[in-house]
Protein 1
Amino acid sequence: MRMREEECTCQVFAAVAVHTLSRSFGNCRERIRGVSQLELLYAEFAREEQQKQIRKEQKKIKRKRKRARFLKIAVAVNVLNMPECYLLNTL
C-alpha cells in the first residue's frame, strides 16, 4: 500500500512538472509571437507611410506638370493676343 501511495505521489509530481513546462513553453511562445506581431505591425505602418509619401510625391509631380502645361497655354494665348506690329518687331 505504501508503494502505491509513493507511485501516485510520483505521478502527481510528474504531471505537475509536465504541466509547468507546458505553461512555461506556452508563455515563451506567446512572448516570441508577440514580438513578431509587433514587428509585423510596425512593418505594416512603415509600408502605409511609404505609400502616403509616394502618393504625395506623385501629386506634387502632377501639379507641376499641370502648372507647366497651363503656363505653355498662357504663353501661347498671350502671343496670339499680341498686336501684329509687336510680333513683327520681335521677329
Protein 2
Amino acid sequence: MIRFYFMGLFILIFAIGANGIAQSLGIKTWYGFIQLLLNKNESIMELAFLDILWLFFIYPLILGTSAAIGAWIYNQIIAL
C-alpha cells in the first residue's frame, strides 16, 4: 500500500509539472479539453494535432513513466 502511495506522489508531481509546461506552450490540457466537451458538441474537431498528440500519447507516457520511476525509487529505498 505504501508503494502505491509513493508511486501516486510521483505521478502527481509529474502531472503538475507536465500540465504547467503544456499550458505555457499553449497546448490543451485535460481541463481545457473537458471544457470543450461541456461547451461544444464537436470538440475533437477544434483540437490541433499537437493537442491530440499531447492528450492521448505524450501525457499518458509521461504519467506511466513517472509511475515506473516512483516504483524504481521506492524499490531502491526499500532495498537499503
